Amino acid sequence: MDTRKKIKTDNNKTKHPQYGMVVDLDKCTGCGACSVACAVENNQQPATPDMCSRTGNTWRMMYKVKNGEPFPDTKAVFVPMFCQQCDDPPCKYVCPQNAVELDPMTGIVAQIPERCFGCRYCHAACPYEARYFNWWDPKWPEGMEKTLNPDVSPRMRGVVEKCNFCHGRWQSARAKAAAEGRRELREDEYKTACQESCPTEAITFGDLRDPDSKVSKLVKDPDTFTILGRLGTKPKVFYRTTRSWVRRTVDRDIYSENKEKVHG
Amino acid sequence: MSKTFNRRDIIKLVGGGLAGMVFTPIPWKLLDDISIWTQNWSWIPVPPKGEINSKYSICTICTAGCGIRARCVAGQPVSLWGIKDHPVNDGALCPLGFGGHHLAYHPARLRHPVKLVNDNNTITTTEADRDDIISIIADTIANIGSGRSNEIVAALDNRPGRTVSFAYRKLLAEIPNGMYVTTGSNGTDSMEGFSEITGENVNTFGFNIEKAKTIVSFGAPLMEGWGIPGRVYGAMKNGIHDKQFKLIQVEPRFSHSASVADQWIPVTPGTEAIFALGIAHVLIKQNFVEEVDESYKNLVAEYTPQRVSDITGIRRELIVDTARSLATNGPALILCGREPAGGPFSHEEQIPIWGLNSLLGNIGPDKMIVPRNPVPAGKSFQDTELATVTKLSDVPDKSIRVLIIDESESGNAIPWQLIERKLVPDKAFVVSLSPYLVGMTKRAHYVVPAPTHLESYQDIPPSFDARTATYAVSAPMYTPPDKVTEPVEFLKLIAEKTGSDMPTGSYTDLIRERAGEIHKKNRGWVYNPTNGRITETADILSERQFWGLLNDGGYWIDEPVNDTQVTVKSLFGSVGKEKLKSKLDDISRPNLALQVKYPVMLVPFGWRGVVDSGPVTPLISKLYQESEFRQGTNRALIHPDTGSLYRLRKDRPAKIITEAGELTVRVEFNDSIRPGVVHVALGPDQDRITGVKEVKIKENVLSVSAVNGHGTWRSTPARIQTV
Question: Which residues between 239 and 258 in chain A have a beta carbon less than 8 angstroms from any beta carbon of chain B?
Fold first, then answer.
């Protein structure tokens, strides 16, 4: 199902924004800066020595997806995978605690750790495997806790967490706009950490409802698509590529990769 | 009628109550509360509070010198970001740079001098006295001076060109048999072939990447960390969709650079130079080149596309097409790279690769490879004797008695055996000035920890690829621990003890003095990150104002050099035609006897910044341990056909055997790998990520790689078998 048809882009500025993102896979170099910048921004703890890809906590995972051809005809693309901020999120429906909320003000799928009691139903329901369970108390090497971002609380052990489009940045931007007597944010006022960190500007983020925003224009580009869009979860994260094999392969590969690496 | 309350009623009441309670919030509330009570403990950190502001500085983790903006809470950096529109990195920062503010708190951090004892590769430390270490060094220097010994006192500097580098050279010129040694791992070792053909100093040349429409990279890890990463990313950012920019990666492994490149040319390991000659053959034969030396023409004539195809394993048509696209989709730049873990090509291999730039007329002002001015030294280091710069490969074996290892890393790997073979056996005394007990420092006898990233003033000379001279200063954001010693102060203490002459000012004074010399030149511009303005140096009236700008993260950029003509002396370099031909013949003819004994080729690989000796941010675990996006240490990538040939199993250990030793690796099948080749990753050890309780020296792929006389270890004949 094509989410582009579902997200209305009208001129009604009084409607709340619906934030979304387009990742240009042709520009992504797989440098990993977004993963680390995301971890710094959102106070994700570093791995303990016994952690692995099944038990780690990386809100923004990087995958290398290949065209399926062996040496020497191999081609590859780097695909960052994180919460796709679905408009119809399966994780929300399965949560017995109402710890998952689709924020009508932003369209962001929020995770409320204080409500979460760690049943991990949402974890199982997410087709993108973009949710992570905190198996251990969040710990930083001694002294390093001084480097934590003051705008984001570290989550406790036993809860699920995930990308929230750097919600703390949205709050700060709104507070700043309110102080200046504005209700609406300008396009460049609210940027996610991954967007800010991307050295090739492969990430475009903004209001999908604003027809003038860069992101809403990119969403209409014929080279833009969603991953696992056929499931009908209406993701608000889009990917873009001019390479046809990438579109053909990425769904299959991400899905099989996730099946192999069930987190938790 | 009276009702008796019997046992059955009690059971019914309790049972009914319990059943009824399920339909009340009580058990769920209890469950929730219990989970919350057991989840929240006092040791879960609370983020800092205080006034929020920004500070600007320069990243010193590697040699690129990227501009950074630190978001600070009560003066404490809580995140680092690349500065948008910065002339070096234009907002880009690598994953290690993003975690640079963690390094001051790294668990492997040393806070006082230590003595190391190596017991069967397990390292134990005891606190040491800095003065005792200086006395040992001074006594050894005195003994060498009095005994007419040939033994050497050396300092190993992986980042030449800094003010501290001049201080090393000054001290070493003062003491008997002093030698200032560099490895070239900052990237200059991959430009030695350029130096061979032009006779020029590689430190006065850079690349015009932004101008190139086509880049042919011979193993240059453009996406894994090469030169100033922001420049390459900039080319990607600006050219990818309008197809203005084409990247061709010539490399045996399907690396990140090869994945991102428009074209990957997977040559057989070690045959890159032959591929370059094949390109030269086509360029000359199809008259894309105007003038070529006859004897070079004769050499190149032997490397027909068909012959090159047979040697490199690349289709003949692809060789011809690559040469044509170089000639027709110009300007084209040919880069000769250094694999972060696998090291540089040998001189002889580099010569034909750099020679392509000469054939394309790429060398000279406003061309692809441009001359640049040197950055002047501070006044204290002008008109005084300085030790000459000696390459590690030129140091005689078993000659170094005292080795001082500088604390700054280049980001690229240097195998310890390359250094070890230069030490006097059993008598050598090694002192590391590293702030951390990781990597090469574990091999030292003593460590005198230096300040780390953002703890003291550091100056940043231009990266080896910079197209003009540049200069910047990284101002401190933290206070270093009390017993940490600035390397310049350490050198001054040695000088005091040995009666040598050294400048008297502090390290900050010496850096400021150098900034003053640059200001006096009255050339170039200064970029000010606080307002994004670029000011002509001539308009900055005082030295004090210039220093103030540098202190605020300013970046000085020199004018391009337009009046220097560069002539290519010989396309054979100083090696000469016969020796070059003989080396190329060796590459062309496989050693069948060796192939019987060692049928596979071992090729190390890794990422800049994680393959060297320094610590990394613990959050790098997001890319290695927690996602396996990058292969960690001793992970072997093998084609499934090679795996089945040697009965290897996925995710199981296997043993690699070379002339240098044995290494246990973990097998990962990957059908993008050339059959018959084993690529083994050099990643960050656990002690470099989060620190470990027991410090050990561990074997890695460099331990079993064959390090040849020219300091290269790119590929090693090997055997592989199951454990």
Answer: 242
